[in-house]
Structures are given as structure tokens and as C-alpha cells.
């Protein structure tokens, strides 16, 4: 069975995947409101509400009711500057966003995690993602969808040279490790948002590519 999300909360609207997702949401005739806090102003749209500032400061000011929330937040340890700063964004800020979404009545939360997320991993990045997934599941959303994409491809505002070098190879690797276009991920997230369900669903990269075709 499919639902039509009407009132949507989006974090990360200026990011690689968030930009594609925002464009899709604003072009869906059934979406009446998109609440998208961001650091820099977004282009005006009659169905867009865009508080500007630091997300952590804006969260208490956000108002509902809302039906569905998408979290496209994410950084790298290199961009953040340290493991502690990375965790502050990819764990603490995402969790705070989810808690606020729950308080505003959101029934379905969709979050971008990462391929290899595992709370017991020896790799710091994967461990933080896994710990986040566990924390999100404990919040008790009626429906929680966790997307685990592989390397994301697309035009970033801040290029990542390492990803650029790896991209050609990652396009050829089969299965979950094959790179995925950000626009494909955005389409997959929207399709997943339309699916009515209960409990937790974890969607690996291969399925995300299929859903986003």
C-alpha cells in the first residue's frame, strides 16, 4: 500500500543528495509543505519553508504537524577536522534531528546511513554509523527506513579528490559496493517514503539503485 506524504521535514537540503530530493519534493503536486532548515537560503518556492541558520539552533523552533522526515546530513572526518567533530554531525546532530521530528508528529523517518554500518566495526566511520542506526531504532518511530548507499556520485559544492579518483572503479564493482548517483538515491528515498509499513527497514545500495531507476 502506498501513502502520499503531505507535510515533510528535510535536513541536508543543500547537500549532494538533499538538493535532488528537495527538487523532487517541490515538484510533487501532493506535497503541501516542505520544511527545510539550512545554513544558507534556498530558492523561494510557495510550498517551501526555509529557516536559515545552524540546524542545532533551529531545531527547537521548528513547528509541526509533519508526516515524513528525511535526513540527508553527513560529512567526512577530513571535512569535519577530527573524529569528535565528525561524530558531532553524523551521530549527535542526526539523532537530535530525529528526536525533534518525532516530537513534531513524524510517523516515517528516512535516514541516509552508509554501506558497512556496524556498531561493532573496528572502522570508526562504520562504527559511528552503526551506533546511530541503533539509537534511531530506539526512538520508536512507527516507520523507520535506513538507506545504506555505497560511494555517492554527483557534483559536490566541495569536491572530494579521493572520491573522484575512486569513482571510475566504483562504477564497475558489482553488488552493494558499486557507486550510486545521488539523484538515484534521492528517487529511491522518495519511493520508499511512499510505501506504508511498520517497524524498521534497512535498504542496501543494490536495492537503492533498483528503486531509483
CATH class: Alpha Beta
CATH architectural category = 3-Layer(aba) Sandwich
Instruction: Provide the β-strand percentage band.
Output: 15-25%
Major beta sheet summary: 7 strands, parallel
Could you explain the architecture of this structure?
By secondary structure, the protein is of the alpha/beta class. It has one domain (7-211): Rossmann fold, CATH 3.40.50.720. Helix content is 39%, strand content 16%. The chain contains eight helices and nine strands. The strands form two sheets. A seven-stranded parallel beta sheet has the order 3-2-1-4-5-6-9, with helices on both faces. Helix 1 (16-26) links the parallel strand 1 (7-11) and strand 2 (33-35).
In short:
This protein has 213 residues and is of the alpha/beta class.
Main traits of this protein?
Rossmann fold, 8 helices, alpha/beta, 9 strands, 7-stranded parallel beta sheet, 213 residues, globular
SSE arrangement:
Layout: E1 7-11, H1 16-26, E2 33-35, E3 48-49, H2 55-58, E4 68-71, H3 77-80, H4 83-103, E5 108-112, H5 124-137, E6 143-148, E7 152-153, H6 161-170, E8 180-181, H7 182-193, E9 199-204, H8 205-211
Parallel strand pairs: 1-2, 1-4, 2-3, 4-5, 5-6, 6-9, 7-8
Amino acid at each position: 500500500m502506498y501513502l502520499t506524504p503531505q507535510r515533510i521535514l528535510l535536513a541536508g537540503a543543500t547537500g549532494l543528495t538533499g538538493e535532488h530530493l528537495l527538487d523532487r519534493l517541490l515538484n510533487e503536486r501532493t506535497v503541501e509543505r516542505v520544511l527545510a532548515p539550512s545554513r544558507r537560503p534556498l530558492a523561494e518556492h510557495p510550498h517551501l519553508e526555509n529557516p536559515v541558520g545552524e540546524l542545532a539552533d533551529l531545531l527547537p523552533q521548528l513547528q509541526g504537524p509533519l508526516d515524513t522526515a528525511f535526513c540527508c546530513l553527513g560529512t567526512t572526518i577530513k571535512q569535519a577536522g577530527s573524529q569528535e567533530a565528525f561524530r558531532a554531525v553524523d551521530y549527535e546532530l542526526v539523532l537530535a534531528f530525529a528526536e525533534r521530528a518525532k516530537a513534531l508528529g513524524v510517523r516515517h523517518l528516512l535516514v541516509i546511513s552508509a554501506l558497512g554500518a556496524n556498531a561493532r566495526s573496528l572502522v570508526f566511520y562504520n562504527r559511528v554509523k552503526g551506533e546511530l542506526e541503533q539509537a534511531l531504532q530506539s526512538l520508536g518511530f512507527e516507520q523507520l527506513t535506513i538507506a545504506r548507499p555505497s560511494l555517492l556520485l554527483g557534483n559536490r559544492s566541495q569536491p572530494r579528490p579521493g572520491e573522484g579518483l575512486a569513482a571510475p572503479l566504483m562504477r564497475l564493482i558489482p553488488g552493494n559496493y558499486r557507486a550510486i548517483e545521488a539523484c538515484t538515491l534521492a528517487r529511491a528515498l522518495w519511493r520508499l517514503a511512499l510505501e506504508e509499513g511498520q517497524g524498521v527497514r534497512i535498504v542496501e545500495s543494490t536495492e537503492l539503485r533498483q528503486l531509483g531507476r
